[in-house]
Amino acid sequence: MADRHPLFMPLILVGGLIFGFGLGFSHMARPEVVLNFLLFEDFGLIFVMFGGAIVTGLTFFLAPRLFGRAPLTGDAFERRLKSFDRNVLIGGAIFGVGWGLSGICPGAAYASLGVGNVTILWALAGMFIGAYAQGYWRS
Amino acid sequence: MVTDPVALQLAADLFPNGISRYAVGGLFVGLGVTVIYLGTGISAGASTFLESTLSYVSEKSRFQQYVSSRDWRLVFTAGIILGAAAFAATFQSGLVTSSLYQPGTTGQLYEVGGVTLWTTDVQPWRLLVGGIFVGVGTRIGKGCTSGHGVCGVGSASKTSIVGVLTFLAVAIVTAQIVAALGVSP
Fold it and tell me: What CA–CA distances, in Å, run from A124 to A40, A111, B39, B87?
């Protein structure tokens, strides 16, 4: 945490700005649009995740081949690989119930606040309650 | 160009709002992840913020493990909120227009100081209860739509692909059941 590169935080902020702008532009920050997707009324949302995954896929493939280490941290470029176990299925299913009921996921909820959706504070409160509950049980 | 009327009708049925706003938005989401990754090597997901921020107020070990990243995760989330606000001040307000941006008809628009803001019609109980499930599930399941969906799928991670298929399938079933029970919006 100490001795971070002076550009570390500014870069995180810029990345967040672009990420949040994209969630607003795509309307994924609107629960109605997510629910319309899940109800097969508008399949456009597929392109948000695929569009994002194609860009990150190219990045994760090319960065380790073109550049040695990340300039601001000195860390190696690694793919996001997490171990598979039952929790991926259990947690995924619980998340799916929540996403299908509310139409909102964490990143989109933060962005939703940014487009003016004050009502989304209900979902954010719920997410913190849920995250706290599982952390309490599992600590 | 697709000119076959049957194909055009099918496209209009599947994509009543076109695909450009979704695809462009998705590219921006991927670009945001890319900027952070190229500079730092970090694959940024959105849901860890929930636990890392709880480490400020709880000594539980599940939250304390994220102490070293909790400050930049706050900045990342602030960036997401501000980036979405920049969208609201430009495209949502009609200040900037593009053939790639299709405004929607969902929810309610309202004005504050010349900026067009938007709020949902989805009922608060759905957001609160759904949010609790999202908070529990994303943390037990090791990721959310951005962590598994964008970063993990982009990494061709089998764990993430299985995670995405799981939450997507369950979300579809859940949304269909809720709608069939007459709950709307």
Answer: 26, 11, 29, 20
Strand runs (DSSP E) across B38-90, as ranges? none
Interface membership of A68 toward B (CB under 8 Å): no
Q: Could you tell me the pTM of the whole model?
A: 0.96
Which letter does DSSP use for residue A79 in this model? -
Task: State the CB neighbour count (10 A cutoff) for residue A129.
Answer: 15
Contact residues, chain B, for A13 at CB < 8 Å: 75-76, 78-79, 82
Q: Is B44 on the interface with A (CB under 8 A)?
A: yes
A79 lies within 8 A of chain B by CB: yes
pLDDT of residue B2: 60
Are B51 and A47 inside 8 Å of each other by CB? no
With contact defined as beta carbons under 8 Å apart, do B138 and A65 qualify?
no
Alpha helices in chain A (DSSP H): 8-25, 31-38, 46-66, 86-102, 106-114, 121-138
What is the nearest CA distance from B98 to chain A, expressed in angstroms? 11
Average pLDDT along chain B, 185 residues, taken 10 residues at a time: 81 94 98 98 96 98 97 98 98 97 95 97 98 98 95 96 98 98 95
